[in-house]
Amino acid sequence: MRVAIVLFERFTALDAVGPYEVLSRLPGSEVVFVSTRRGPVRTDVGSLATVADAELAEVSEPDIVLVPGGPGQSDQMTDGPLHEWLRAVDQTSSWTTSVCTGSLVLAAAGLLNGRRATTHWLAMDQLGALGAIPTAERFVLDGKYVTGAGVSAGIDMALRLVGEIAGEDLAKTIQLGIEYDPRPPHDAGSAATAPAEIVERLRANSRHLLT
Amino acid sequence: MRVAIVLFERFTALDAVGPYEVLSRLPGSEVVFVSTRRGPVRTDVGSLATVADAELAEVSEPDIVLVPGGPGQSDQMTDGPLHEWLRAVDQTSSWTTSVCTGSLVLAAAGLLNGRRATTHWLAMDQLGALGAIPTAERFVLDGKYVTGAGVSAGIDMALRLVGEIAGEDLAKTIQLGIEYDPRPPHDAGSAATAPAEIVERLRANSRHLLT
Q1: pTM of the prediction?
Q2: Could you tell me the end-to-end alpha-carbon distance of chain A, in angstroms, rounded to an integer?
Q3: What's the gap in Å between the CA of B173 and the closest CA on chain A?
Q4: Structural domains of chain B, with CATH
């Protein structure tokens, strides 16, 4: 299983690293972080850089492609090398996947037309405008197209993918290995459960990030 | 709030990036990744490098110190520059913290003597042997010493820290921002809930990592 995780400036770190932590534990898997050029790529906050070890052209025919989201997603919405590469690797991928607003990039590249998909809760309308069928679930499988909700959802999505690829026993083994027994201090992780004034404040503050 | 996250070769990515994703969203916080030398530091799996932007000597008096775990923790157990730095920054830190087997490093540096602390479920015995009081909880606060359980527990721990530092409303806001509404496909994230044969297999396979 060759896994290619896309990086771009101002991506959100956990979108990429959550699924990485799970998928890299698939026996025999090889993960490569890929970007338009090699070298450090800064996250949205700016205080973390992760290294792209390969350029897009160096990675062909990965089995799993994963596109993270983050504020920098808005720079990846026009046709160009990344979209061309995504359409090319999608021809042979077993799974074409995204976390958070990474699904907007997949959709903009034309890969989610008429497909059920999800994204960060603040970006559902845009996902629909790009031709996908917005679906408010933690992660959505539509054939080989697998999309996760916001940021932390990539962990759940990747564990499900491991189950599909290698069976539930391995998914459970990896879950126990990363001690994924979540105990959030509050029940505030979705727009349905968070206090309404917090939902509205985030919606107002985030509008400029999602254009 | 200045946050220093320690990197060392063969750390586990999510140990560091989970709390980073939360703590970097504290208004006014500055996060710096710090290591014995600047530059890329490879994770345990090897296919991801994150960049240390500062050397230990360049970072003094952070408010929060965080030590991740991972297989490379076993190279950080002898006295030397990292232990000296940890003892120095602990003099003035508001919070001295760890995720996973990072607590073994804190304990080896002499910072958890007689304190309640936690670690990855496979490393509880070692934590006790190093002078701490092993406590099987998702995260443990003992004064300013805050330790998280394995890998993914750093997200829960960091949300709790945000609550302590800036109040529950901000913790909920960050939780909603990263859409942390976990839905693991299985209930297998702790030794208490995972199938017994999976617990035993992991225990057998992981013995060489925890020496």
Answers
A1: 0.97
A2: 35
A3: 6
A4: 2-185 (3.40.50.880)
